Amino acid sequence: MRPKAAISHSAYGRTRFRVESRRREDAFFARIAERLRRLDGVSQVEVNAATGSVLVHHQLPLEELARRARQDSLFEVDNEPIERLSDSVRRQFGTLDGGISRLTEGRLDLEDLALLLLIIVGLRQLAAGQLAVPAVSAFWYAAALLAGKEKS
Question: Are residues 27 and 69 in the same domain?
Fold first, then answer.
């Protein structure tokens, strides 16, 4: 039976698979590296048995790479959708934004809170005599947020 591999990262022809069930099995990961390197469209393979990681640099479409790994009995790729880091960050900030809005009964959102914090940081830096860059930067970002609020 082929072990399950989860895709932990995939972008621009670089995919990292995690084979948790075979962690620390050096011979298994050496075999995977050797066999994946032989595939047309694979330029580099790095494995780390301690973490169960297989990093593949490839020109193949990801689906084709997964099909070949399954066909060669290396591993079965779990087909759960890949969440990009930027999507995850947006989702987390959206959750935080909603929480702030609920806590303040709609009077503040994350953008309002960021504006207030930047103004406070600017004032603190100004009081500490840090006029040159830190205070100006904080006020600059606060002004940009405020200008964006006025447009919407």
Answer: yes
Give yes or no for a contact between 25 and 6, defined as CB atoms under 8 angstroms apart: no
Amino acid, single-letter form, for residue 81? P
Evaluate whether 95 touches 87 at the Cβ level (below 8 Å). no
**Per-residue confidence (pLDDT) for residue 134, from 0 to 100:** 67
Structural tokens at position 85: 């880091």
Q: Is residue 88 part of a domain?
A: no
Domain residue limits at 24: 4-77
Query: Chunked in runs of 10, what are the mean pLDDT values of the chain (152 residues)?
Result: 90 92 96 96 96 95 93 87 70 88 90 87 84 71 72 56
* Residue-level pLDDT at 119: 87
Is the residue at 85 inside a domain? Answer: no
Q: Decide which of 14, 45, 77 is a domain's last residue.
A: 77
Q: Does some domain include residue 69?
A: yes
Whose CA is closest to 10, among 112, 106, 75, 78? 78
pTM for this entry: 0.54
Q: Report how far residue 31's alpha carbon sits from residue 137's, in angstroms, rounded to the nearest whole number.
A: 53
DSSP at 41: T
